[in-house]
Specification:
- The complex is a heterodimer.
- By secondary structure, chain A is mainly alpha-helical.
- The longest helix of chain A is centred in the C-terminal third of the chain and has 31 residues.
- The radius of gyration of chain B is 38 Å and the shape is elongated.
- Chain B has a two-stranded antiparallel sheet.
- In chain B, helix 9 runs parallel beside helix 14.
- The chains are: A mainly alpha, B mainly alpha.
Chain lengths: 103, 697
């Protein structure tokens, strides 16, 4: 198998995605889950940048990558703020225990 | 232009009805507020008005030469071929009855105002009495057989009400029930007769009957001949109809075998006995046969049956009257016996003679009953003639009137009973339907009648007063002096009682003059008068010398009866007892009225009871068994269905529900609410998809 061109990017992106996904599935700590989500987002952003550079011959994909980074930062800020509020209230950030929104 | 009678004839019927309604609806309050006087006035006044109108009607009919006058009031019912009109008929027959009913009725009303004084039910009594007169008038004036039947039932009802008037005593209500039930037996025959008549005649008349009231007497008179030859079960239909109607007559007019109610009916107040059970109601049967004479004339078989039953009743009841000790019972059997005479007359086709006897009998029997009432009042409600005696000294007016009426019933000339009875006896012998045996029965009855009636007079009015001897054993003189202060004193009744007695006694003497036979130089005016209804009276030119012989014979029989009773009860008072001792068995038989009541009790009453018991048994064990078994079967079936329902139908429903529940319960576990778990599943499925894809490709 030849690791040239787009393929190597895609493999890395895939590994990143899987790592993020497994993190999301296996972690009970909300911060851990968050980290997994960041990994998934980044694997997607990597894909955008790679396809933009190697196949589309345009800058649109790279722009979306920048958007994703900005979005992730904003999201992280809000999420961490929420986390602090949750922690203040429940003294706990274990996702399994925070079931109040279920009903 | 309509005559008064044609337009307003119904008023004769209406007045008593109004009287009955006023006294019946408001009587209690009226009596409490205005006293008995007003009640008496209303009731008597109503009858008086009727009587005056009746006299007018009678005069009109006489002037019209016997032409029937109809007063059509309204059409009662009209359904298919059945049409019944309420029409009142004024012809010689009905106006004659009208005079008897309202005339004697009025006297009895007046009499009752004194007799019933102080009774709590004064208003009730007069209301019934008026209602009775109303019913009787409907019976007599009704122009069709159905209207006659209405009156027929009405008098039965009123008779029941009045016999049981003092209903707080059980014996009276029993007597009332007996009268009603026995009458119902007769009425059943009567209405069956009417059904047959209607059925056969409407079939036979066909188009002739179109729009006509078939049961009206005018139609019947004209067209009854149509069914002359029809037969029913191989017997002449006319005979069956006549016999059915006659069964009704035996019930109402107390003939064998349905006479048993009349003696018991004496439980009612005495004026009631006079009005209902002597003068009017019991003559309804005779009137009915007279009214339908054209029908009865068509069947000589029916006539023969009537004659035989009449003669038998006359004789049979007369013998029973000989040994009765209750003054009213003697008169009751005498009434039955005299009614037998009337039916004998009807049966031999001497319709006018029968109705003549109805008239004379009404006067003297009413007089006797009212006299008996006066005696009972004087004796302070003692009815046993063995405890009376010597009353002629205390109650001269009652004695005189009672005596005259007695002579009239015995048939001593020239009193009224002689003419009517002799006419009947002569017809029984000589008419084409007659027979010497019938005459013999009537002849013997005449003798026996004289015997028991004079026995009654002798025991009641002659000799010494036995009540005093028995009860107080007090010297007679003392009674005379203290009589006025003694609560038990026997004194003459007031004028309201004696005046009607005197009027009735007068007619008992003179009423016979209306029918003096040709043989005695008269013209038999009553037969002449009734001829438009009863068929033509043919004056026989020559007189059979036998008629005189028979006349003398019957007078002789009457005198012999009186002589015998004089010998028994005045000359040798101990003799009857000795005789009774000698012929003990026969005496007991007659004394107990041939045990007819007992036989009826054993056969019909017990029979009915036994039948009911049998039916009850059948009901309980056969019908109930079937019912219970079917109940059980249904129950079992229901149980099976129920079990099936619970097991299978409900089971299926429950199974669906349960399995859905279980499925949900299990599936619920998948839905953990943990996002990670869902993602994991997602991941695994995608991974699986990829693997599958790789393998397949």
């Amino acid at each position: 198998m030849e690791l040239t061109g787009i393929t190597s990017y895609l493999i890395i992106s895939f590994i990143l995605f899987l790592a993020g996904l497994l993190t999301v599935v296996s972690k009970r700590n909300i911060i851990g889950i968050f980290m997994g989500i960041e990994l998934i987002l980044n694997s997607a952003a990597l894909n955008f940048a790679a396809f933009s550079r190697l196949t589309a011959r345009s800058l649109e994909g790279q722009m979306v990558s920048l958007f994703v980074i900005v979005l992730a930062a904003a999201e992280a800020a809000i999420a961490l703020a929420l986390l602090l509020a949750i922690y203040k209230r429940y003294r706990d950030i274990n996702a399994d225990n925070l079931t109040t929104l279920k009903w | 232009m309509k005559s008064f009678l044609e337009s307003y004839g119904f008023l004769i019927v209406l007045f008593p009805l109004l009287g009955a309604m006023v006294n019946g609806l408001f009587g209690r309050r009226l009596q409490a507020k205005f006293g008995e006087k007003l009640i008496g006035w209303v009731a008597s006044g109503a009858i008086l008005f009727s009587f005056l109108l009746s006299v007018a009607a009678f005069i009109t009919v006489t002037r019209e030469d016997g032409r029937a006058i109809m007063n059509h009031v309204y059409t009662w019912l009209e359904a298919g071929s059945l049409k019944v009109e309420v029409t009142f008929l004024f012809d010689p027959l009905s106006t004659l009855m009208l005079l008897i009913i309202t005339g004697i009725g009025f006297l009895i009303h007046v009499y009752s105002t004194a007799y019933m004084k102080g009774d709590h039910g004064f208003w009730r009594y007069f209301s019934y009495l008026n209602l009775f007169v109303f019913s009787m008038l409907v019976l007599v004036l009704g122009e069709n057989a159905l209207l006659l039947f209405v009156g027929w039932e009405g008098v039965g009802l009123c008779s029941y009400l009045l016999i049981g008037f003092w209903f707080h005593e059980k014996a009276n209500t029993t007597a009332a029930n007996k009268a009603f039930i026995v009458n119902r037996v007769g009425d059943f025959g009567f209405i069956v007769g009417l059904f047959l008549l209607y059925w056969l005649l409407s079939a036979a008349a066909g188009p002739l009957a179109e729009g006509k009231s078939i049961l009206s007497f005018s139609f019947l008179t004209e067209h009854a001949g149509l069914i002359k030859d029809s037969t029913l079960f191989g017997v002449s239909a006319v005979t069956i109809i006549c016999l059915c109607l006659f069964v009704g007559a035996t019930g109402k007019s107390a003939q064998i075998p349905l006479y048993v109610w009349l003696p018991d009916a004496m439980a009612g107040p005495t004026p009631v006995s006079a009005l209902i059970h002597a003068a009017t109601m019991v003559t309804a049967g005779v009137y009915m046969i007279g009214r339908l004479n054209f029908l009865f004339s068509m069947s000589s078989t029916a006539l023969a049956v009537i004659a035989v039953i009449g003669a038998a009743t006359a004789l049979f009841a007369a013998t029973m009257g000989c040994l009765q000790n209750d003054i009213k019972k003697v008169l009751a059997y005498s009434t039955v016996s005299q009614l037998g005479y009337m039916f004998l007359a009807m049966g031999v086709g001497a319709f006018s003679a029968g109705l003549f006897h109805v008239m004379t009998h009404a006067f003297f029997k009413a007089c006797m009953f009212l006299g008996a009432g006066s005696v009972i009042l004087g004796m302070h409600h003692e009815q046993d003639i063995r405890k009376m005696g010597g009353l002629r000294k205390y109650m001269p007016r009652t004695f005189a009137t009672f005596g005259l009426a007695t002579i009239a019933i015995m048939g001593i000339p020239p009193f009224s009973g002689f003419f009517s009875k002799d006419e009947i006896l002569w017809q029984a012998y000589s008419s084409e339907h007659g027979h010497p045996v019938l005459w013999l029965a009537g002849f013997l009855t005449a003798g026996i009648t004289a015997f028991y009636m004079s026995r009654l007079v002798f025991l009641t009015f002659f000799g010494e007063n036995r009540r005093r001897q028995a009860a107080h054993d007090e010297p007679h003189v003392e009674h005379e002096t203290h009589g006025h202060h003694d609560a038990h004193a026997i004194k003459e009744s007031p004028a309201a009682i004696t005046t009607p007695l005197m009027i009735l006694a007068f007619f008992s003497i003179t009423a016979g003059l209306a029918g003096v036979p040709e043989a005695l130089g008269g013209s038999n005016r009553i037969a002449e008068f009734l001829s438009p209804v009863l068929g033509h009276h043919v004056p026989s030119g020559e007189h059979n010398p036998l008629e005189y012989v028979l006349m003398v014979a019957s007078i002789g029989a009457a005198l012999a009866g009186v002589g015998l009773s004089y010998f028994f009860y005045i000359y040798r008072p101990g003799f009857p007892a000795a005789l009774a001792e000698k012929f003990k068995l026969f005496y007991k038989l007659v004394y107990n009225k041939y045990y007819v009541d007992e036989i009826y009790g054993a056969v019909f009453v017990s029979g009915t009871k036994a039948l009911s018991k049998g039916l009850a048994f059948f009901d309980k064990y056969a019908v109930d068994l079937v019912v219970n078994l079917s109940g059980l079967a249904v129950k079992t079936q229901a149980r099976i269905v129920g079990w099936f329902d619970a097991r299978f139908v409900d089971g299926a429903v429950n199974f669906v529900a349960d399995s859905t529940l279980a499925l949900g319960d299990n599936l619920r576990k998948v839905q953990t609410g943990r996002v990670q778990a869902y993602i994991l599943v997602l991941l695994l499925v995608v991974a699986l998809g990829i693997v599958v894809k790789i393998i397949l490709v």
